[in-house]
Design goal:
- A hairpin with a 2-residue loop joins strand 17 and strand 18.
- It is built from nine helices and 18 strands.
- The chain has a six-stranded mixed sheet with strand order 4-3-2-1-5-6, with helices on both faces. A three-stranded antiparallel sheet has the order 7-8-11, with helices on one face. The protein has a three-stranded antiparallel sheet with strand order 14-17-18, covered by helices on one side.
- Helix content is 33%, strand content 22%.
- It is elongated, with a radius of gyration of 22 Å.
- Bound molecules: zinc ion (2 copies).
- The site of one zinc ion (ZN) has 4 residues, from loops.
Length: 343
């Protein structure tokens, strides 16, 4: 990747990371001699309150047009400008190219995402609070009967528990996948009524000051068959092996392999079709990637999920926790019981 003298940061989580601004319309011009934050009239107050370490500029009209007008009116010399191509629409790219004549646009994708991988104590504190809210929501949910309720009703119960406990917006749509739908790794809650003796995969998160956690538990609405219990135990062991092995300096691909080999040895090699996990922070899915083909290396201060699963044609089991990588190993932030639970 080439390096640009100036970088334009437009992806909202990246803008928030750099400046503290939580609104939806803001961008940052980051250069050797300048640190400017742009927003529009609607966010003037919010920017004054939240943005730290950047000079705030209020632009008129659409954000990027306003940014270009500012650059031209101040005659800012931008010979090269790095942009986040991985988050920028083609229309916005063309607009920049048209309006910033004489500026060479280069791809600076991932620059801020890399910085976001290792969390500060403050960031970890927020993820820890979000995790406690998610754990507590599961504790409340297990006191309710799931049989006879629709998946959507269960999702709403969970969300209301988390909102009451102080969670911000849900980081992603809650997954409640029951019965045969549990075989769909991303089966968002639907109209299906949960029946007795079924697995129910529940995957969700809370957020605190923009920081998320991500947790999955597979509950059962009655006794499971021997085979279902064997699958559950295999997933639980695979997760435990990976949690025990995780430490700074370890290749994420090697960690993925530990869980995958265990599931393969139990005869379900083809039934674990997704990656082992991912970073969590301002976004529910961020770097590093814990996968077979990942080049990432674990570092102390990273917050990641470990979430093996087995999906047969008829049903699925996934167990996921959010963990902090420390010098002493991985410390779970979400800690609701992983024992098989009948609800
Ligand atoms: Zn999840
Ligand atoms: Zn996840």
């Amino acid at each position: 990747m080439q390096s640009a003298a100036d970088t334009l940061v437009t992806h909202p989580p990246n803008v928030r990371y750099l400046t503290g601004f939580s609104g939806s319309s803001g961008c940052v011009l980051l250069g050797r001699r300048r640190r400017l934050f742009f927003t529009d009239f609607r966010y003037r107050r919010q920017a004054e309150r939240q943005v730290k370490g950047y000079d705030v500029r209020i632009v008129e009209g659409a954000l990027l047009s306003g940014f270009c007008a500012y650059v031209r009116s101040r005659r800012l010399k931008l010979e090269t400008l790095g942009v986040e191509s991985n988050h920028m629409s083609h229309a916005d790219y063309l607009l920049l190219r048209r309006r910033l004549k004489g500026t060479r646009l280069i791809d600076n994708s991932g620059l801020v995402e890399k910085q976001r991988r290792v969390k500060s104590r403050r960031e970890v504190g927020r993820i820890r609070r979000a995790s406690a809210i998610a754990d507590e929501a599961l504790s409340r949910l297990r006191r309710h009967r799931l049989t006879g309720r629709s998946e959507r009703q269960v999702a709403w119960l969970l969300e209301s528990f988390m909102r009451e406990a102080g969670s911000g917006p849900m980081p992603f749509e809650i997954i409640v996948a029951s019965g045969h739908r549990s075989a769909m790794p991303h089966g968002v809650a639907g109209e299906r009524i949960i029946r007795k003796h079924e697995p129910v995969v529940i995957d969700f998160g809370a957020s605190v000051d923009g920081y998320c956690c991500d947790i999955t538990r597979t509950l059962a609405t009655g006794r499971l068959s021997k085979r279902q219990l064997f699958i559950y135990e295999t997933v639980r062991q695979a997760q435990q092996l990976a949690i025990e092995a995780a430490r700074p300096g370890m290749a994420c691909a090697a960690l993925d392999k530990i869980a995958r080999d265990h599931i393969g040895a139990a005869g379900f090699g083809d039934a674990f079709g997704h990656s082992l996990g991912h970073g969590v922070g301002l976004e529910a899915h961020e770097q590093p990637l814990l996968a077979q083909k990942s080049w990432d290396i674990l570092e102390a201060g990273m917050v990641v999920t470990i979430e093996p699963g087995i999906y047969t044609g008829r049903s699925g089991v996934r167990i996921e926790d959010t963990l902090l990588i420390t010098a002493e190993g991985a410390k779970p932030l979400t800690s609701f019981t992983r024992s098989p639970l009948i609800v």
